[in-house]
């Protein structure tokens, strides 16, 4: 009986820090992309089945950790299929201790909204949009980042 109580306590402690996912429609994301405050947003489109996406996630989490008090916000938008959210996405986030904000997007028809994110986007992932509408910053990157290229781009955009 003692071991069962220990197991339950461990389970509760493990799950008390579970990463939450905000479920969004594309209309909500589209509205967010019109944001006019002075925050530099880094929006990464990724999926749990995309190896290059997974490899660069720690870079974005590092940006989140290093800029807690700066006007920089990382949002990771999962493009995993809705039927995989609870069984794959949430456990993946918890197992990898992802700290950045995570949204999962209801994809009615991706071809209808990919051009709205950025007309340069061919639809492949990973893809990252960095923007600050108040400062007229709009940068789109449709491949993986290395730590050096991400840091270089962030320094450039912060100092514009």
The low-pLDDT segments are: 1-17
Radius of gyration: 17 Å
The number of domains: 1
* Broad shape: globular
Classified in CATH, the superfamily is Glutaredoxin
CATH domain fold name:
Glutaredoxin
Short description, anyone?
The chain is an alpha/beta fold and 160 residues long. It has six helices and six strands, in the order αβαβαβαβαββα.
Question: What does this 3D model show about the protein?
Answer:
The protein is 42% helix and 22% strand. It has one domain (21-158): Glutaredoxin. It is built from 6 helices and 6 strands. Mean pLDDT is 85; it is low at 1-17. With 160 residues, it is of the alpha/beta class. Strands 1-4-3-2-5-6 form a 6-stranded mixed beta sheet.
